[in-house]
Design brief:
single chain; mainly alpha; about 0% strand; elongated
Length: about 90
């Protein structure tokens, strides 16, 4: 009996980017990833770190596109910029 090869659906094109994250933020990301996998139950293998990052960035950017300078993203970035001024 010939084996049937599984075909995967075509993937969306992706872009790669290297970013450097603070160790504390990376730890939070790992913890969120683990907790989201637990919440997903039997589908936990489908919850990837890339998926978590994609969802978090999408939400942050949607908030920024709606609220601009009043968004959580803008406030957090501007707070960091202003804190680093000499």
């Amino acid at each position: 009996m010939p084996t049937r090869k599984r075909t995967k659906p075509p993937r969306e094109p992706v872009a790669r980017m290297t970013v450097y994250l603070d160790l504390a933020l990376m730890t939070r990301l790992d913890l969120a990833h683990a907790q989201l996998r637990a919440l997903a139950g039997e589908s936990r293998a489908k919850v990837t770190a890339s998926m978590v990052i994609d969802a978090a960035l999408s939400q942050a950017l949607a908030g920024f596109e709606t609220a601009k300078e009043q968004s959580a993203l803008a406030l957090a970035v501007l707070e960091r910029v202003n804190a680093k001024k000499p």
